[in-house]
Design a protein that fits this description.
This protein is α+β, with helices and mostly antiparallel strands. Helices cover about 25% and strands about 40% of the residues. An eleven-stranded antiparallel β-sheet has the order 6-5-4-3-2-1-11-10-9-8-7. The longest helix has 20 residues. The chain is globular, with a radius of gyration of 17 Å.
Length: about 230
């Protein structure tokens, strides 16, 4: 794949041979989790999924710790990154990666922005050749049932007030090129997302220490979102 064709062509991190696969995985997690948390009508035809989305859409602001585990079958290795994540129904999502590198990754309906201590890189959604991927997921924030049904099949969905899980497979050829299946589970919030990718690769992201306070953004958080407007 040529650099200009990469989903994160301008997003440079110090991962060398891993960077393209990690960038795609991180983006998928970001936009999927963003839409998953804030949809309130999607999959209305499925009562189990409707209950899941209803529960997740209650809280306008959520902060959590995350750990991402990227397994590459060809290298027989698992690469781990950690940090914090902020979800705002009105603004978008901010990932603050703390290790093994430090960076802020901001996603809004308008832009994808990566900020490090020395660099600032951005992609405008409507100008990126892969912008339709991010746009499609971001549409789910508003509960776009038609868009969801067009691109995903529900493999399974189970809900109870104390535990839920849902498995999705892609319909569109574009999504099929990026991943095989998405599995998510949680209780009040999303606790784990597993993205099964091609070539027996996978990305697992674990969320912990969820907090809904403060409900308003801090000045620093608001400033980060403004970078992606």
């Amino acid at each position: 794949m040529q650099k200009n064709d990469s989903l994160y062509a301008n997003f440079e991190v110090n991962y060398h041979h891993l960077k393209k696969q990690r960038h795609i995985a991180v983006l998928l997690i970001l936009v999927f989790f963003l839409s998953f948390c804030f949809s309130n009508q999607a999959y209305a035809q499925n009562i189990q999924v409707e209950q899941i989305f209803k529960q997740l859409s209650v809280t306008p602001t959520v902060r959590a710790q995350f750990q991402q585990q990227k397994k590459l079958a060809s290298l027989n290795k698992t690469f781990v990154s950690k940090g914090t994540v902020l979800f705002s129904k009105q603004q978008g999502v901010v990932w603050q990666i703390q290790s093994p590198v430090q960076a802020s990754l901001i996603v809004t309906p308008q832009k994808l922005v990566q900020k490090t201590q020395r660099t600032l890189s951005q992609i405008e959604i409507d100008k990126s050749p892969y912008g339709s991927v991010a746009t499609m997921f971001l549409q789910l924030m508003s509960g776009n049932e038609a868009a969801l049904a067009k691109n995903f099949n529900i493999v399974s969905a189970q809900y109870s007030p104390t535990q839920w899980n849902v498995s999705l497979t892609p319909k569109s050829n574009l999504f099929k090129k990026l991943f095989v299946q998405v599995d998510a589970q949680g209780q009040k919030f999303v606790d784990r997302i597993i993205i099964t990718e091609k070539a027996n690769n996978s990305t697992t992201i674990l969320f912990s220490q969820h907090s809904t306070q403060p409900q308003t953004l801090t000045a620093a958080e608001y400033a980060l979102f403004q970078l992606a407007k």
